[in-house]
Specification:
Elements (H helix, E strand, L loop, with lengths): L18 H13 L9 E2 L6 H11 L4 H4 L1 H5 L35 H11 L4 E11 L10 E9 L3 E2 L4 E12 L5 E12 L29 H8 L4 E5 L5 E2 L14 E5 L3 E8 L15 E6 L4 E6 L12 E10 L2 E8 L23 E4 L2 H10 L10 H6 L9 H16 L4 E9 L8 E14 L2 E12 L2 E12 L8
Parallel strand pairs: 12-14
Antiparallel strand pairs: 1-3, 2-6, 2-16, 3-5, 4-5, 5-6, 7-8, 7-9, 10-11, 10-13, 11-12, 13-14, 15-17, 16-19, 17-18, 18-19
Pfam families: FAS1_DH_region, OB_ChsH2_C, zf-ChsH2
Organism: marine metagenome
Protein name: MaoC-like domain-containing protein
Amino acid sequence: VADSDTPLGGRPGSAGVNPGEEKAEFLAALCAQVGATGKPWTARDPVSEPVIRAWCDAMADGNPLYTSPDRAAAGPYGGIVAPPAMLQVWTMVGLHLGGPPERAVEDTPSAGVYQLLDDAGFVGVVATNATYSYDRLLRPGHLLTGTQTLAEVSEEKSTGLGVGHFVTTETLYTDQDGNRVGSMTLRILKFRPGTGRQGPEDDTAEERPVRPRPATNRSTDWFWDGCRAGQLRIQACDNCGHLQHPPAVRCLSCGGVDLGHTVASGRGTLYSWAVPHYPQAPAFDYPLVVGLVELEEGVRLVSNVTGVRPDQLNVDMPLELHWLDTDDDTTLHQFRPAAPRRRDSTLAAGDLEVGHRLPLSPVPIDTLLIVSTALATRDFQDVHHDPDAARAKGTPDIFMNILTSCGIVSRWIGDWAGPDVGWQSIDLRLGAPNHPGDTMTLSGSVTAVKSTDGHDLVTVGFEGANSLGTHVSGTAELVFGDLPGDRA
C-alpha cells in the first residue's frame, strides 16, 4: 500500500509537488515504453498431452479431439489437438524453483510499467479484456514463442475497484518453424486498493437475517432430514406405489396409511413460475423466482429457481436440483437451469440462423474450481489461491482468472456446437468477479452467419452473469466445415 505522503496517481517521495504536474510526469514515465516490443519468449516445454488433459479436467472439457487418441485420429485433424483457449497457457512463465522468474524490461516492456505502478501503490490487479485470434491448430510437440508489444497505458481512471491505470499489451505467438499460430490482446487494471466505490465494509451494518425456517412436525421431519442429507425425498405409498407432495397422513390415491418415501433424481422441468416484487424481505435475494417444478418422477413441488433472470425463463425449461444451507441445521432445496449435455456430433451451420439461442448453463463457483483452473493455466498470481493476499489487494476473496473465464466459455460453446467446430477468435470483457460460493449462468445466441471459401463463419454473442452482475461478455467466431489448409 502506498505511503500516506504519496499523492493520488503519483510516486512516493513527491509530497509538495503540484498534483497535476506529478500525475503528468508519472503518466509520461508509464508511457515511455509504449510501442516497444520485447524479446521473443520461448516456452519452457512444448505442447503436450498431459498438460492438455490437466486443463480439460479442470475446465470439465470433454471434447474427445483433445484427449482421446483413437477418436482424434479418426477426426478431421488426424490426431490430438490442443484446445484453442490454451493459446496463452503455453508461454505462461509459471514458477521457477519455487518462485516467479524475474523478467527484464527489455524482455517484456510491460514489466517496467507494472513495477512503477506497484511502487506507487497500485498493487491491485485484475484482467479486464482479452481478445484471442487463432491462426493454426496446436498439436503435441509444437513449441511456442511469444513476442509482446506494450500497446497502451491509460491515464488515471476511477473504477469500482479503485483508481488506477489500464495497461494493454499485444502478444504474437509463433511455432518452432516461425509460423504464426495466434495472437492475444490483453488489458489489465492496476489499481490502488481501498479507493474504489465499494469502500471498506461498514462494521455498523446490520447482519443479514437468515431465511425463515420451514414449519416442521412429525409428519414432515423425514422430508427435511432428507434435505440435510442431500436427498429430495418424495412420499410414496407402500400399498399402491403412488407418489405425492406435499406429504399427507394417508395416500391420496388408495387411502392407505402405510407411507414411505423414494429419493427423487433431482431432474425436472419448469411447469410455471411467479416473481414476487413487494414487499421484499432482507433474507432473500431479488429478483426472487418461485417456481412450480415438475420432477421427472411426475410429482410437482414449489421451489426457488436460481441462477436465471426472469426474462430467461420458459415453460418446460430443464432444471436440476441444488441445495442452500441457510443456517447450521437447515438445508433448503433449490433448482437452477440444468447443465446442457455435450453434443457428440457437430451442428451444421445451415441449420443456424441469427437469434438461435444457446442453452443456459449454470457454473457453480467454488474454491476448487478457481484454484484448480488457475493452476491448470499456469497462473500462480496469489489473488487466485490466497484469500488473505486477495483481500490485501482490494478484493473480498480469491477470484477466477481470465484464462479460466475464456476456457469455461469456450467449453460451453464447444459443447453446444460439437467437437469438430473450428475457432477463429474470441473476445472477452470482464466485469463482476467470480468469487467462491456464487454461480455464473452462461447465456448466448447466434448474432451472425456468413458463408465464405467453402466454410461457414458463425458469430456467437455470450454473457456469463453471477449474483454481482455480468462477469463476462463478448463474442466468439466459429468455423463450420473444413478449416483452410494452412490452419489445420
